[in-house]
Amino acid sequence: MEKGNVLVIGNSGVGKSTLINAVLGENVAETSWGNTGTTKELKIYENDEVPFRIIDTVGFEPSFVKELRAINAVKKWSKDAAKNGENDKKISTIWFCVDGTSRKLFAKTIKDLSSATKMWESVPIIVVITKSYSVPERKENIQMVQNAFAKQKISKNLHEVIPVVASTYVLNDTAFAAPEGIAELIDTTNNCLPEGIKAADRDINTYKLKRKNVLSQSLIGTVTTAGVVVGAIPIPLADAAILTPIEIAEVNALAGIYEIGKSENSKNFINSIIEVGTVGAAAKALISAIKAIPGINIAGAVLNAVIAGSFVCTIGETSRYLFEQVYLGKKTLDDIDWAKKILESKLANETMDKINKVIEQVSQNSDNKSIAEIIAKVFFEKG
Ligand SMILES: Nc1nc2c(ncn2[C@@H]2O[C@H](COP(=O)(O)OP(=O)(O)OP(=O)(O)O)[C@@H](O)[C@H]2O)c(=O)[nH]1
Ligand SMILES: [Mg+2]
User: Fold this and answer.
1) Do 242 and 172 share a domain, yes or no?
2) Is the C-beta atom of 138 inside 6 A of ligand 1?
């Protein structure tokens, strides 16, 4: 079975490194006294007895710059997990440490936690109340944590709140607080790891998909502007073929984002999309329909620019959707008829409405950049 990874996170000095040593039963993580021994980088620890790896992190600090550094270090670690598929960087459970002696849990600390671990949006969180030396205060502290989390979006991931003493705390010659809660923390972590490992995989996939989406939108935006520029040169309105090189570049770049590859199958798939979008019957019919819109009061060049940009945008957004379906395994590159029908149906049923909306918003004086922006706004509108 896959070994899970536990990310230990919290303010500087709460006792993250001390906790890790207690769980692993050896002094591997350096702990701090004053300014020395504070953790400066993310580090992964494991041994044969504990069935999960533990990642020690840089503590959140009150200073703004150090704060960002701590958060960004975790974000970078997480991105590497997504980018390089590094299994030991996936985070399958989070131990969020809060100091049991401070008796305060600031909303800001929880915000830092959410921000650093944003990618792991469904991974279980165990709050560890460190330095829980006072037995009577434990119940109240648990309540305080639950209240503080209740108002937060990540509260759905809060799995358990566990007070611990990681190493003996000496009050005087006869009074001390003995280590406690470590076994419970290990058991609880073990129990939520299978779900956590699944959640980590799910979160990585969601993250990758979101990234692909953002990259694609920005690409389509850029190419739409190129389409507008080409369209604005007075050309015969019916000649959608003049856009073909732009569209080929666009569709190929999108295929790259969705890891479509360069097989014979993918070439056929991509070529069919381009054909439908440029010289296909639906594309031609759409251009005739636009020409027939009564009472258009913008000049030929502006109208051409709108049409060109809208075509490029439609083909981009539709092929993005098609590639996404293939990437998700819901369709294959052999489903060419399906792909063609979707683009044809967009061109026949949706693009005209959108072009009308764009026409309403552009004016005689709109420059290329603002035309492209209006198109992107109308075409990417949700719903
Ligand atoms: N006696 C006792 N001391 C503790 C316990 N937990 C933390 N400490 C002390 O608190 C101080 C800070 O602990 P660390 O484990 O270094 O804290 P950290 O969260 O790793 O700090 P950074 O690496 O700076 O973020 C050290 O002096 C620890 O000995 C505990 O359970 N018992
Ligand atoms: Mg530390």
Assistant:
1) no
2) no
Distance 76 CA to ligand 1 centre (A): 25
Mean pLDDT computed over 224-240? 75
Domain that holds residue 54: 4-180
- Top-confidence residue, 77 or 300: 77
In a domain, 189, yes or no: no
Selected residue with higher pLDDT from 208 and 33: 208
The answer to whether position 199 is within a domain reads: no
Residues 132 and 260 in one domain: no
Does 171 map to a domain? Answer: yes
Task: State if residue 181 touches ligand 1 by the CB under 6 angstroms criterion.
Answer: no
Q: Using the atom order of ligand 1, give the atom closest to the CA of residue 21.
A: 15
pLDDT exceeds 60 at position 51: yes
Say if strands 125-130 and 93-99 run parallel, antiparallel, or are unpaired. Answer: parallel
* Residues facing residue 158 across a β-bridge: 125
Domains of the chain: total = 2
Task: Round to whole Å and give the CA distance between 267 and 247.
Answer: 14
Provide the whole-model pTM: 0.82
What stretch of H or E contains 194?
Answer: helix 182-232
- Could you tell me if 130 and 268 lie in one domain? no
> Tell me, what's the pLDDT at 383?
42
β 43-45/52-56 pair status: antiparallel
Pair of tokens at residue 359: 């026409």
Residues within 5 Å of ion ligand 2 by Cβ? 16-17, 39
Q: Please, is 183 exposed, middle or buried when counting C-beta atoms within 10 Å of its C-beta (0-12, 13-18, 19+)?
A: exposed
Among 46, 47, 42, 34, smallest CA distance to 16 is for 42
